[in-house]
Sequence to fold (155 residues):
Amino acid sequence: GSIGTVIAILKAFFWIWPAAAVAYVIGSIASSQFVISAHEASTSVQITGAERLAMTLFDVSNMWLYLVIIGLGFCVAFPVAFGIKRLLPGLSGLAYPLAGAAAIGAALALKYKGLATVPISGARSELGFAAQVLAGAVGGYAYALCAAERTPARA
Fold:
């Protein structure tokens, strides 16, 4: 009954944060690579592999506010995807990846509108923006795998 529904909702929201972490790590890594590549292109200074790794690890461990933004975006997008799956079962396999992609795309676009710049430096080019959206899609896919609605076995 209603207790089962509450538990299902709590489980669904619990899995948002691990999915957000997946998108965050991928997005942070991608952002680092775009920033480093832009720096190399504009200065002709070559970044060593060790420096690239150190910069990437620094970004992954210090862009935590981006994780919060992704998680909050997923808190809005995934319940919408759940409803869309119910209305359009043919889209069920794409619902969460598309919702994850849309959440990150919308968050970056809204931040651009408010700040007149994209706060994630590695998302300032079209390809960098696409990489962030792809990270959101992978986060949505991770959510779909972890939070899949399972029908209990009937005796």
